Amino acid sequence: MSIFKIHHITKYEYERPVKESINEIKIFPYKCNEQEILSHDFTITGNTYIQLFTDYWGNKTGVFNLLAPHKELLIESKLMVRTTASAQLKINFHSGWQELQKEVNGNLQLIELAAPEKIELQAEIDMIAATIFNNSKSIASVVELCSEYIFKYFKYIKGITTIETTVDEILAHHAGVCQDFAHLMLQILRTLKIPSRYVSGYICPNKNGMRGEGATHAWVEAWIPQYGWAGIDTTNNVWVTNNHVKLAVGRHFSDCSPIKGTFKGPAKQKLSVYVSVGYEDGQIFEEMNNVQMETQTKEAKEELVPENVAAQQQQ
To answer: Are residues 137 and 191 in the same domain?
Structure first.
């Protein structure tokens, strides 16, 4: 078990007043057996009322309106969470395709999460899937091989992709960040009819060399027969244990976007994101990103995604 103190501030500054800012937030820890919320303090500019609900995927979601003219929007989260997963997972490496088919049949959500997207370079995905697929292997082994393949053949490079980068573009770059690798892995696993879902959250490895420390992070959960959802972080090629804090799950990033919304008013905006992770040994990891934003027009859309100075995406 590990306890983490996570401080996350998203700040928008506008060159002139804007109004009617309507936003959706998903920066509440996901309710599951692998983590326990010890405390969570949440503040928004103007002490705005937050309407809470649970979405289709089981994510705790908040919606708020900041109607009055404002030149700044500040969203601050102070979280203390205990991860309760064992460092030694007991993933079922014996269950295979017959067991998977039995569990997926009749489960509409698993069926939905096993269907790949239509992309132009599906032939390349089919080749990767064929490389890692072996009918005699268990589902967990195939998932592990998929993660290993992406980790080995795709480079981790910040700034060359954005939140709108497609799987086709990721294949062309053969590089990206955690969000890109998660989307690529989803396409491969779903091509093999393995239900899988996108996960957003934080990675808290206490400076042990893992990619994405202290930032909003993304990984994949695959459905393992006779086990359930198993998280795997292909950016670091590790199964998820007690160093990851889960915020939201869904079919894609758009289902898990930490903050997104709209506002009225022509204004150039500046976005800064601060994340710190405090560890039980007293160490603190801090990261501040100033994100370059395009000028917004009347009723323009804000995709407020903490992370990455150039692309605002999860690392």
So the answer is: yes
For 130, other C-beta atoms within 10 Å of its C-beta total 11
The count of domains in the chain is: 2
Helices (H), 4-137: 97-104, 108-113, 122-132
* 3-state SS, one letter per residue, for 232-290: EECCCCEECCCCEEEEEEECCHHHCCCEEEEEECCECEEEEEEEEEECCCCCEEEEEEE
Kindly state the average pLDDT of the residues 83-99: 89
CA separation (Å) from 146 to 140, 141, 190? 10, 9, 11
- Of 99, 97, 193, the closest CA to residue 136 belongs to 97
Q: Do 105 and 196 fall into the same domain?
A: yes
Residue 307 lies in a domain: no
Whole-angstrom distance, CA of residue 228 vs CA of residue 222: 8
Any domain includes 151: yes
Q: Structure pTM? A: 0.90
pLDDT computed for residue 39 by the predictor: 97
Which residues constitute the domain of residue 54? 2-84+258-302
Task: Give the residue-averaged pLDDT of 38-48.
Answer: 93
